[in-house]
Amino acid sequence: MKYLLLFLLFMAVPAFAAEFSTDCLNCHQQDAANRQLQQSAHAGLLSCADCHGEDHKSENVARRYVSAEVCGGCHEKQLEEHRNSRHGLGLHAGWGCTRSMPDRNKGECRFCHQKGDTLPISTVQCARFIKQSSEMGQIGCNRCHMIENSCGSCHGNHMTSAKIVQDPMVCAKCHMGPDHPQWEAWKTSQHGTMFNSLGAPSAPDCQSCHMPTGSHNISAGLTAPPSGQPYAAVKAAAQRQKMLDICQQCHARGFAARDLKNADAVRLQTLALVDEARRIIRDLDDRGLLDPPPQTRLAHPQRGQKLVLDGTMLYEDISHIESLFFRLSKYAAAKTFKGAFHQNPDYTHWYGNAEVKLLLNDIRGEASRLRERGSQKRTETAPSEAGLDEKALEVLQKRHERGELSDADYAEKKRQVLEQILQ
pTM score, two decimals? Predict the structure, then answer.
């Protein structure tokens, strides 16, 4: 009897769907969305109203926006895996709170808040995209960063064919370009060449390594976030074993471990060069030598009129030397270690490492020019030696506050400056 009831319930789904679709189809019979739905895996199982609701005033209908929670009503496991991955933070990596912006779009609140809830979904924020025009935000930012709360970002809104998401091109829409060239690095690697020449069984694609067995947790096996800063040792080790399990399907485990270990080293070496460039620019800011100084620019949306050199750094209203640093840290460094982890020698070396070092040379040269110009200004205004010493003490204090100098180092360097004053 139980199985009979289940059978009858299942058989009733298409009729239920058709009943609710009728009202929608009175107006949308010829819409491309309806034609696509009829060709999809959901054909005969879902109606328009099942996903969009029947209230034309609701956000789902009026804006044609269907959130991941709606899909999760049936695909609970996939939604949970997705939420546990870096894709689950894709939206917040692109947005910061817009409440203090005079021309904000109130609809953007939903990017970070559940409806009716003042608490943000996560604390991961960036200011870069909220500086853009609304049009650039929609076309150039949200098309990728909607992935957190829109299954359609990968699956398509109505076709929902597995064939779409089994093609590595679906990843290329977002994972290409100067700041995260994973698709290009894979495409032109030995893996990509073999895949395109001989087909899927011969070599891995994006899904083979990052969505094994169809998992929606694309972060499994990664030992660092997009910034490249490694996870804590225990977490990184556990993640590495997951990736080695995947590599071992084609390679000896020891071979794969050595290759990934070399990529780890390249990543750390690259981050050290980025840190050197960051220290140079911070020192210039401490001495008031950036041109123009942060205190005279349009305020950063989240940090105000301060020097920002981390993941929320903007690429507008900044000095020339900061522009060089943006290219080094955001583009060249990313190409270096992402190329290394995707086994692409040209991205690792020429597109990445060489560009990092050339840009670092430019930053060193520009820093020398700014220091020389600052020295000439001091000579022209003829400040007292005490004034120069006071500036040196201020620079040391700022470095100590940032954690660049330990208490012991700060005390020693401060003592040396004070000794010079007393001589």
Answer: 0.82
